[in-house]
Design goal:
- With 415 residues, this protein is of the alpha+beta class.
- The protein folds into 3 domains: 91 residues, conserved putative lor/sdh protein from methanococcus maripaludis s2 fold; 124 residues; 78 residues, Elongation Factor Tu (Ef-tu), domain 3 (Beta Barrel), CATH 2.40.30.
- 35% of the residues lie in helices and 33% in strands.
- The protein is built from 4 helices and 22 strands.
- The strands form 4 sheets. Strands 1-22-18-17-21-2 form a 6-stranded mixed beta sheet, with no helix packed on it. Strands 4-11-14-13-12-15 form a 6-stranded antiparallel beta barrel.
- Its main location: other.
- Belongs to the membrane fusion protein (MFP) (TC 8.A.1) family.
- It comes from Chitinophaga parva.
Length: 415
């Protein structure tokens, strides 16, 4: 008799299924808990620049481009306007103080000069005529007074005699009174004539004083106009080199217009353009160095121009004891401008990464050098060669310092 065989629940097949499912669950759990889920990107190691973080002296300086300029430049401006009739010298010529450079012509100035000169002649004639009239008037008045004095003397003599005779009744009272009135009238007339003479003389003196003042002012104006006439010839104010003259014969020049400049050849300076980022750190007295023909020369900041233009400002630097031989105006060269003293620091070589991260993070290689991981850092000062690392990196670590533009925002780079 056949016996029914019971089928086992945990057979081989079921055990395999359950075991596989459990293994899958364990694998998923491990991936969820322990696996690296950061975004990754495969890169070619030889296509990036890897730099080593070091400990060393940090030189606080910047490299800027400077141009050689004369120590002193004198602007050549037109004192008087006109049009150019002759050009004596061209740009680049050496000049001595007083040398003629241009000659201008101005008809208006010339006519004013002639008119003022004519006015002076008129005033001189009027002044001389007034003085002459005063003398003539004085002589006439003196003559009149002398004649009156004679008449008064005669009338007084007759008056005195008739005064005695009237008492003796030899002369009538009527006759006596007539003599008396004539005598008193003459005395009164003389007083009026004396006052008139004094008034005439005082008035003439006032006129002479006024005319003299007008004449003096007009003569002063004429002297100024002579200077204006002389200014129609543009002359070199100092010895030096006429570096430029920006007008030609026939050009119309207005008063105050710049005609060119003269360079004082007794010395040179350099003018550098500095990024506005450093405006608070650049001041007079800072030192710099400059290489020329194999020699190194020291410079000192003597002037800082505060105006910011196109994201930069200018500074003037003077040479120290030694000035390079053979240096010429207009030459340009990089100079090293010291912003502070050297100090020990953790150094990260500069590179294109900064423009992509702003110095807030970098890719740091792991110990095996197989991958680079994104890490936050803090950078301090910067010079053309290095960044000063404040936090986030240690000496000996390796960092990708080339551009991160193609990496997107990946957290891990695998080589």
């Amino acid at each position: 008799m056949d016996r029914k065989i019971e089928k086992k629940y945990w057979n081989r097949k079921r055990i395999l299924y359950v075991g596989g499912a459990a293994a899958l669950v364990l694998l998923l759990g491990y991936n969820l808990i322990f696996a690296d889920h950061r975004s990754k990107l495969n890169v070619e190691k030889d296509k990036v620049t890897i730099s080593k973080v070091t400990q060393g002296p940090f030189d606080d300086y910047i490299a800027v481009t400077a141009v050689v300029l004369p120590l002193k430049t004198i602007r050549l401006d037109a004192i008087q306007g006109g049009y150019v009739v002759k050009k004596f010298l061209e740009g680049g010529s050496m000049v001595k103080k007083g040398d003629s450079i241009l000659r201008l012509e101005n008809q208006h100035v010339m006519m004013d000069y002639v008119n003022h000169e004519t006015e002076i002649y008129r005033l001189v004639n009027e002044l001389e005529n007034t003085k002459l009239n005063l003398k003539q008037s004085h002589f006439e008045s003196e003559k009149t007074l002398a004649d009156l004095d004679r008449q008064i003397a005669q009338a007084k003599d007759l008056y005195d005699r008739n005064k005695q005779l009237v008492d003796e009744r030899i002369v009538s009272r009527q006759e006596f009174n007539k003599n008396k009135y004539e005598y008193e009238g003459l005395v009164h007339q003389r007083d009026i004539q004396a006052q008139y003479q004094q008034f005439q003389e005082e008035n003439a003196k006032v006129q002479i004083s006024q005319l003299s003042g007008t004449l003096q002012r007009t003569q002063h104006n004429l002297e100024l106009m002579k200077e204006n006439m002389a200014n129609l010839v543009v002359r070199a104010p100092v010895d030096g080199q006429l570096s430029s003259i920006d007008v030609e014969v026939g050009s119309s020049i207005v008063e105050g217009q710049n005609l060119g400049q003269i360079d004082d050849m007794d010395g040179f300076k350099m003018r550098a353009t500095v990024d506005e980022h450093y405006v608070s750190r650049v001041f007079t007295g800072l030192t710099a160095s400059f290489e020329f023909n194999g020699g190194n020369y020291e410079l000192t900041v003597t002037k800082v121009y505060p105006e910011i233009k196109d994201g930069s400002f200018a500074v003037d630097l003077n040479f120290g004891k030694d000035v390079p031989e053979g240096i010429r105006r207009g030459q340009t060269s990089p100079i090293r401008l010291e912003l502070g003293k050297s100090a020990s620091a953790v150094l990260l070589p500069s590179g294109g990464f900064f423009s992509d991260t702003g110095g807030n993070w970098v890719y740091v290689l792991d110990a095996g050098g197989k991958r680079a991981v994104k890490r936050k850092i803090t950078l301090g000062r910067k010079n053309p060669m290095f960044f000063e690392v404040v936090d986030g990196l240690k000496p000996g670590e390796q960092v990708i310092t080339s551009s991160y533009e193609t990496f997107g925002n990946k957290e891990v780079l695998e080589f």
